[in-house]
Amino acid sequence: MSLTDKVCVVTGAASGIGKDIARQFLDAGAKVAIADLNIDAANATAKEFDPEGKRAMGVAMDVTDEAQVDAGIAAIAKAFGGIDVLVSNAGIQIVGPLESYKYADWKKLLAIHLDGAFLTTRACLQHMYAQGRGGSIIYMGSAHSKEASVLKAPYVTAKHGLIGLAKVVAKEGAKHGVRSNVICPGFVRTPLVEKQIPEQAKALGLTEAEVIKNVMLKETVDGEFTTVDDVARTAVFLASFPTNALTGQSIVVSHGWFMQ
Ligand code: NAD
């Protein structure tokens, strides 16, 4: 699967899943913008992957900041020659029961996952439509785009919402050759999940080992975590797929935790 000279933007690419997607996109021949709130980590990632600075660039981007998103995407298009692929991946998790969930946390989580997806999509679509060479937009959903868990109300709400956005992008983008799909991973041991293990143990009155075995991996077919490699391979597949046959879809990569 080749992404030769495709210009790819990955948000939240300074860590975890996004970082491995950036790495595999570069390996497939792409030019990659590592867009992240944490600019130092984004620049370090770009340098790690491409010491000469020709095919990878770090970009400071808070995906909830309209002006920063528009300016960041414009700068990437100028530096690399347009935009071909967006992976809207930046995300956070804040766990807690609904009855005491803080409104500020609810709004923060929805803003990063949903406003961020909208703003980056809008900015990239303008370039993709103007260029006339199609494109691929991939949203980082979750098994929680299809399934619910306790303590995760805004996350489950946002991840379900991304499937709706991807379907509209698929319909509006089709005449411009722009495809849109959602990847729905199961639990991956990134910093986002490492932080949740003690939090869930406390909230549910379990040990950390019990959270892993009986909460996170209970419904998988093999008791295994999904890996960043599993998810990044799926992103390369979706980014390089050549036709509109695969659009408006969501692919669950979860060791069978959720089956369609
Ligand atoms: P991570 O914490 O390792 O990385 C998230 C990155 O997003 C960080 O580099 C962070 O700086 C960046 N970020 C946070 N807020 C941002 C903002 N406002 N603007 C720009 N960047 C911002 O997390 P991860 O596990 O790699 O998660 C990446 C995506 O995958 C998220 O959307 C998450 O919901 C999703 N996901 C993760 C898992 C999992 O088990 N880890 C499972 C399913 C889906």
Count the beta strands: 7
Which CATH-level-2 architecture? 3-Layer(aba) Sandwich
Number of domains: 1
Beta fraction: 15-25%
Which class do the helix and strand fractions yield?
Answer: alpha/beta
Return Rg in Å: 18 Å
Largest sheet: 7 strands, parallel
What's the quaternary structure here? single chain
According to CATH, the fold-level topology is Rossmann fold
Distance between the termini: 26 Å
Kindly summarize this structure in a few lines.
By secondary structure, this protein is an alpha/beta fold. The chain has a single domain (7-187, 227-253), classed as NAD(P)-binding Rossmann-like Domain (Rossmann fold, 3-Layer(aba) Sandwich), CATH 3.40.50.720. The chain has helices at residues 16-27, 39-49, 66-80, 103-131, 153-173, 191-204, 208-216, 228-240; strands at residues 7-11, 31-36, 56-60, 85-88, 135-140, 178-185, 249-253.
